[in-house]
Amino acid sequence: MQKPIVGIVLPCYNEELVLKETSSQINNILEDLIYRGIISHDSFAAFVDDGSKDNTWLLIEESNVLYKTSRGLKLAANVGHQNALLAGLLTYKDEADALVSIDADLQDDISVIEEMILKFLSGVDVVYGVRKERVTDTSFKRNTALLFYNLMKKMKVNIIHNHADYRLCSKRVLNALSDFGEVNLFLRGIIPSIGFHKEVVYYNRLERFAGESKYPFKKMAAFAWNGITSFSNYPLKLVTIIGFVIFFLCLIMSGYAVFALFTGNLVPGWLSTVLPMYFLGGIQLFCFGIIGEYIGKIYLEVKKRPRYFIDKRID
Ligand code: UDP
Ligand code: MG
């Protein structure tokens, strides 16, 4: 096989504090891999500016001047991590044999990129970067993440445990990805569903090099919820189950009322009238809420709005 062209795609949102360091480390790794003859000298790092409000784009331009391998893609507005990543992957998929996606904050150990590429060279289509341990995350983030992965598994969604969006995809996989038109993007669910030969590399998750997380709890919870409702109809089934259980309980209560009627024990009670009413009202609202979530999703999907716009690119 000829030396492959490998692109590294990094979504960046307000990352001026880390970008210089990231660019230097990533481009150095690329230059080293090129020098050692493992990848083609057309390989590159593409920094995707997701509508940052700080000097991120300026630094991307600087990096482009500084390193031969450095490129930049500026999106017209902030579209979120998943869409920014998609923009990068779809823009560069035809210019590379494989693309590696990685966060810009150096939390994922970039030294395993070489391992990913070697696996790709041996014929693997998707290489997932998986965190060995999460010592640098807070115990809260660790536990909520664990809960999320277990929940997804219970709902039969095929995702890789402890894998964030650090992965290598071959051109075949990226072409398949471009066929997915969904607006509610959850790449961690989509990529495994594509299939092909996959393998895993392990790494230790490091501290953020600088700056702060752009995923506060609220955004993280929204992301998890999106992941569940985009890939599983289980919550809708849950609604049916809850309805059934409530129906059964009501049946028992009616039986008891008839029994009380015949034994002459029936006190015209306020509680027994009002309590089930409140209870059922609550359950109904809950169920409507879940169904509403899906209808909201359908609404967004049928509009088929474009997921990102490209402002400019530098090569
Ligand atoms: N990011 C982005 N757009 C956003 C939010 C985040 O492109 O609207 C990028 C961010 O610059 C980083 C990656 O997505 O490269 C992951 O974000 P972050 O490190 O803040 O998330 P965490 O690692 O804390 O989950
Ligand atoms: Mg991070």
Q: In this structure, how is the largest beta sheet organized?
A: 8 strands, mixed
CATH structural architecture of the largest domain: Alpha-Beta Complex
Average pLDDT reading: 86
Domains, number:
2
Radius of gyration in whole Å, from Cα?
25 Å
Strand content: 15-25%
SS content category: alpha/beta
Structural account:
This protein is an alpha/beta fold. It has helices spanning 19-35, 56-66, 81-92, 113-121, 139-154, 171-177, 187-194, 217-231, 234-263, 271-303, and strands at 6-12, 44-49, 70-75, 98-101, 126-131, 163-170, 198-203, 310-314. It folds into two domains: 6-214 and 308-314, Spore Coat Polysaccharide Biosynthesis Protein SpsA, Chain A (Alpha-Beta Complex), CATH 3.90.550.10; 234-303. The protein has ten helices and eight strands. β2 (44-49), α2 (56-66) and β3 form a beta-alpha-beta unit. α1 (19-35) packs parallel to α2 (56-66). Magnesium ion binds at residues 103, 105, 107, 208, 213.
What's this entry about, in short?
The protein has 315 residues and is α/β, with parallel strands linked by helices. The protein is built from ten helices and eight strands. The protein folds into two domains: 6-214 and 308-314, Spore Coat Polysaccharide Biosynthesis Protein SpsA, Chain A; 234-303.
Sequence-ordered SSE layout with sheet pairings:
Layout: E1 6-12, H1 19-35, E2 44-49, H2 56-66, E3 70-75, H3 81-92, E4 98-101, H4 113-121, E5 126-131, H5 139-154, E6 163-170, H6 171-177, H7 187-194, E7 198-203, H8 217-231, H9 234-263, H10 271-303, E8 310-314
Parallel strand pairs: 1-2, 1-4, 2-3, 5-7
Antiparallel strand pairs: 3-8, 4-6, 5-6
The protein binds uridine-5'-diphosphate and magnesium ion (MG).
